[in-house]
Amino acid sequence: MIVIYTTATFDELFLKLPLKIRIKADEKTKLFKENPFNPVLRTEKLHPKGHEVWSFRVNISYRIVFKFTGKDSAEFRFIGHHNSIYDYNIFR
User: Fold this and answer.
1) Which domains does the chain have, with CATH numbers?
2) N or C: lower Cβ tally within 10 Å for the chain?
3) Within the chain, what is the greatest distance between any pair of CA atoms?
């Protein structure tokens, strides 16, 4: 089971999402906790690859961006439309 931590940016963005997307994000987060590479999530490493930042799909348009912080932990850094991922400093 993966333990999830969130950044202040993630928390702010999550609260601004439509309720329908928040519910879907919660469903996908449950899958992530069980297996971060569940094929349903379509987990992928983001560029630049050296930063070890990943994303998975909430739906066709929305993503959660995260970084593994340990063997069984991850930090969620961003949630939002996939076109906005690189507008935030997710690679720190």
Assistant:
1) 3-86 (3.30.2310.20)
2) N
3) 34
Per residue in 33-72, pLDDT tens? 999 999 999 999 987 767 789 999 999 999 999 999 999 9
> Nearest 10 degrees: CA dihedral of 59, 63, 68, 72?
-30
10: enclosing H helix or E strand: helix 8-16
Dump the DSSP string for 25-63.
Answer: HHHHHHHHHH-TT-GGG--EEPSSGGG-EEEEESSSSEE
Q: Is 88 helix (H, G, I), strand (E, B) or coil?
A: coil
The token duo for 89 is 């400093």
DSSP 55-70: EEESSSSEEEEEEEEE
